[in-house]
Amino acid sequence: MLDDEKSLLARADSYFEKGNPEKALACYRLILRVNRNEAVLQVLYPKIARTYAALKKYEEAIDACLMAEKYAQPDKLADILVEIGRLHQSDGNHREAVDYYRKALQELHPPDYVGDVHYWLGESLYKVSDLDANDESLEILEQAKSEERGLVLTWEIYNTRGHALTQKKRYEEALGEFELALGEHFDLIDIPGNIYNNKAGCLEELGREEDAISCYEDAIRAPRGQRDTIGFARIKIGTLLKDSKPNLARIHLEEAKVLFEAARDTREIPEWFAREHLDNICGLIADIEDDIGSAPRYDVFLSHSSRDEEEARKLYDRLKSKGFSVYSAKKALSGGDSFTEEIRGALQASSELWIIITRRSLKSNWVTAEWAAGWALEKRLVPILLGCEPEELPDQLRALHCRGLHQIDDLIQELKERVGVSHRL
Questions:
Q1: 267 CB-near residues (< 8 Å, 6+ apart)
Q2: Which of 72, 191, 200, 251 has the fewest CB atoms within 10 Å of its CB?
Q3: Residue 384, Cβ neighbours under 10 Å: how many?
Q4: What is the pLDDT of residues 157-205, one digit of tens each?
Q5: pTM reported for the whole predicted model
Q6: Strand 403-404 to strand 326-327: parallel, antiparallel, or no bridges (unpaired)?
Q7: What is the C-alpha separation between 266 and 284, in angstroms, rounded?
Q8: Distance between CA atoms of residues 254 and 241, nearest Å
């Protein structure tokens, strides 16, 4: 190779390492046009193949690998066969991938990291059901755990075994594999939320819906989450809750919609993938809106400190006796409910927010959180003073028309005029 050709090759490698495969490919192809020496081709075709792969042009990458196979030294042939297998796997051609992985493992000079190859073989094998009738994929994946690996992490093996068992409808066993994956060097898992979603899916299939919802919530909270992972978890929660808690379900679905739209707009996910999920979300929201007439809708969300329970109960009973629909956390929440999500859903579903203001409630973090959320949702806020003065209120509340508890009759009459309640009496 001439000096200029060596310099051009070095420049191409530099372009590739700096994330510019287009320029790298142009340089490699220029060398290929001027130098057909066999020793040069042995070096050049693998580089061209990896560059096409980086551009997701898998057919061209495979063609380059086949040329690399033609010129390869015997001790490099297995690694080239593995690369062809990986390209087929990336392109969704799992049957072809299985063939190349098996050829690589049969070579006189085995691949550099046999554990990696067994993992990729097992990963492709379970996706070709007629080749995996005897659970060969599970055996191969188990074998990969104890072999030398260069790229594959242990949690990936557990996770893939979980996928294989899920496809075979062996959900209890799959659940165990996903739990092992989460317990294997958690900080090294790139997107833990994906595994929580996998685990939750098994719990759903086993009829454990409450556990599944809890697990989907873990996926939402997990570190290093991506928009589509969190959005998927919210879709699943929304689907599970749409009959029992439609308002809360709608909140999850609307947030999922925002996440998938953002992921689409930033090209984190393909357009077709986003559209598929967005169509599903819109359909679920439409179903909820069709049924919302039978769902709880509240005229008043009643916010108060737990230490003002007696006064709150009297006001709650008074409003109910006049035919109003009232939400009070003390009345509505039952054991096991997610407090913050339930409160948020109730606020969303309420026409206005009444706040019993005492010196005790002014010190309550929950009361503050509730009226602040109501403010953010642009709900009508009605401060009802009991034993304190307007000057003691936060600026946002002090600017509103405050009433005393002795003015409840006037408040109820005004509420009736705003929301209309005669039909319920």
A1: none
A2: 191
A3: 23
A4: 999 999 999 999 999 999 999 999 999 889 999 999 999 999 999 999 9
A5: 0.68
A6: unpaired
A7: 24
A8: 14
Please write the tens of the pLDDT for every residue from 375-408.
988 899 999 999 989 899 998 898 888 888 889 9
Virtual torsion, Cα 225, 227, 232, 237, nearest 10 deg? 80
Rounded CA-CA distance 255/242 in Å is 14
| Domains of the chain from N-terminus onward | 297-424 (3.40.50.10140)
Predicted pLDDT of residue 293? 55
The dihedral sign for the CA sequence 117, 122, 127, 130: positive
In 267-409 the beta strands, taken as DSSP E runs, fall at 298-303, 326-327, 350-357, 380-385, 403-404
What is the C-alpha separation between 274 and 261, in angstroms, rounded?
7
- Looking at residue 330, the DSSP 8-state letter turns out to be H
Is residue 327 within 8 A of residue 297, CB to CB? The reply is no
Alpha helix segments (H runs only) across 183-308: 192-205, 209-221, 227-241, 246-265, 271-291
Phi and psi at residue 303, to the nearest 5°? -105, 135
Strands 326-327, 380-385: pairing is unpaired
Please, what is the Cα angle at 332 between 331 and 338, to 5 degrees?
130
Q: How confident is the model at residue 330 (pLDDT cuts 50, 70, 90)?
A: low
